[in-house]
Amino acid sequence: MTEDGVSSGEESVAGKAAERVFTRLKWMIGAIMLLMACALGLKAWEEHQSADIAVLSIMDAEARAVAARVQGRMEATEAAIRLVGASIASRSEISGVTHAIDAIVTLNDARQSPDGSRLAEAAATASGMLERDEHVGLSRQGDIVLVSEQRNGSALMAIAPAGVWLPSAEAGRRITLVSGKNMVGTGDPALALTAADLPDGARGYRSTEGLNRIATVCVPLESSSISVCESVSHPLFTTDDMVRLLIFALLLAAPVLAILGLMNRLSREETTRIIEDTREAEADRIMSLVMRGAKAGYWEWAAESKSLFLSDAAAELLGLDGAGLISVDDLMGRIHPEHRPRMEDTMLRARSIGWVQTSFLTTTSPSRWIELRGSATTDEIDDAKLFGGILLDITERKQSEDRVKDAERRLRTAIESFNGPFALWDHRKRLLYWNRAFALDFGLQDTLRPGMAHDTVVIARAGAVRMEKQSVEDARTNLLELQTGRWLKMVERSTPDGGLITVGVDVTENVNNEDALKRQKQELRKAMQDLERSKGRSSELARKYSEEKAKAEHAAHTKSAFLANMSHELRTPLNAINGFSEIIANELYGPLGDTRYKGYALDILTSGQHLLDMINDILDMAKIEAGKMTINPQPIDPVDPVDAAVRMIRRKAEEKGIEIVLDTQPRLPDIDADHRAIRQMVLNLVSNAIKFTDSGGTITVTVQQRGADIYIAVTDTGIGIPIEDLPRLAKPFEQVSGTRDRNYEGTGLGLALTKSFAEMHGGHMSLSSIEGEGTTVAITLPISGASEFVAETASREVA
User: Which is deepest, 10, 121, 307, 651, by most CB within 10 Å?
Assistant: First the structure.
């Protein structure tokens, strides 16, 4: 080695030693500067805290003086309350001589005050104080409340405005009485406290917007939960603070400037080196971002080595943390078992061919498809092959390819499932694809092959076609009749890439329907001619129909009038029969002698009342059919007529051993209805329920509001009605004709009358039943509008 070489080596060693010394010097100077800055900062903070403590001490003395003043007035007021309680002085005398006492009253009198008043709020506060065994408190309206229990068990209470007991405060200062969440004070409103603002330990600072702080000191009063708090606004930095900071800054600035000058000269070479390192790091960072954005990573592998180097992005793709070496065995463990043999063969062949490209599925969660690419370079020193390349995430590409394959498979399945012929041609009209139906319909199973010309296929299919004609609506559509008798509608359309699609639809049924339609049109024309000839006969038939209809309407009207008159005439003698039989049964004029006479009289009375009920039902039904039945809607409580009907018929239910339950919704709105008609409907429904319910059963009458309607339902636990008999039960004189049912008396008019009355109100009736379990009959009536419905019906009848 030459002398120059030795010299340069020594200079290099010296330069490295100087660099190490320079680095240690920088750290030492930085530490000295930091220690000086910390010492000066701590000194400034100590003096600032001392000033804050002095301010809080002065405020604490002032707050204690105010607290003593308030405490004295509280004790004087408590003494005054004791005088009033001992009847030594009247309340008015004490209020007049005691400073700022607005009132002394008993707690019971205060509780009678209107809600929101001062006495009411003070009474609420005093009640809580007695529960906590306190004598002084603060109401939510800012009054001081003092309470004292007397020997007779009562309590006297005094109230005074808290602001009068507090001294007036100048700007920037506020005196506040605090009790729980209740606060009142005097002075600067900007310094108002909230419960969350009270400092821990009853003294401290809280920050505000700007460069100010608020100092607060609280002193609790003896024997109460009230505290006296004083708040004063202080600037965050005083003039003394600024002067001290300026002095400390000057003390620190001199050595800092000297040290900075020295470091500036010493750090030029270091700055140059840092810039170069930064550029290299930035280049590496940009490359890493690019690789991550492309979901790719870098790898290196020596052909004779058993390990690979992976970059951060490459390691992430394989589920590893950070860049580094990974063994070949570990790499194989992260590849799906089905792909490992192919990967091993690829790496083995790479040594001879000098490049590698393969793809595999990872075992990570979630699994990924990775493509590995790379090529080899030869090391100039030991003539070894070094492979380098990228790992690329191709999961999305694989998924897209799989979706395309699935779509193609589904399309082929759909085309093969299509029962009509289908063929696809390229832009030169050469056959690309056809389905099985295309070959079978035209008998071309052994003829068709890919690449056949369109004209050749048309000629080849001619043997299977009996007739071909062009469609009138579309020139590109032809109708083909096959030798088998089927008709096909062949449609050809161009594809976006210039190709052609041929689709055939079986229209055999449509063609046959057209032929049938033609025959039907001919038959229709013949029928029209026959109709013209029979027109004269139709006019005669229409005239006879009108006459017969008028006769039927007259007969129906006569029937209704007859029933109405007969029912009226029958009621007169029945009233006499019922009246005299009731006199005889009750033995109003003396005993009858034989008890059988009384039984006979009761039978006559029961039968007469039953007959009168049936006649009344027939009369009401006749009036409805004759159009003479009217209702008088008035605003009523819907529960009143229902309750009246239940009370009228409850005795009859109790005699049979049946319980009636009335279930009404509270605060129902008034309904526009006829009270008598509603009561009659409920009587009919409950009477039917009693008739078909055995002893021990239950009948529930429900009244509810459902939207804009009132819902009245009668539910029983009786024998029920077969489902096939429900549609006809609301018709006049209709009853269930079962063997058991016919044992019950009645005309079958109850449900018909109820349905008619409901419809006269603009409502409707519904019926539901389960045979053997019970029946529910419901009436739905509009809350308002019955009068309008009656008026509208009357106007239609007049028109």
Answer: 121
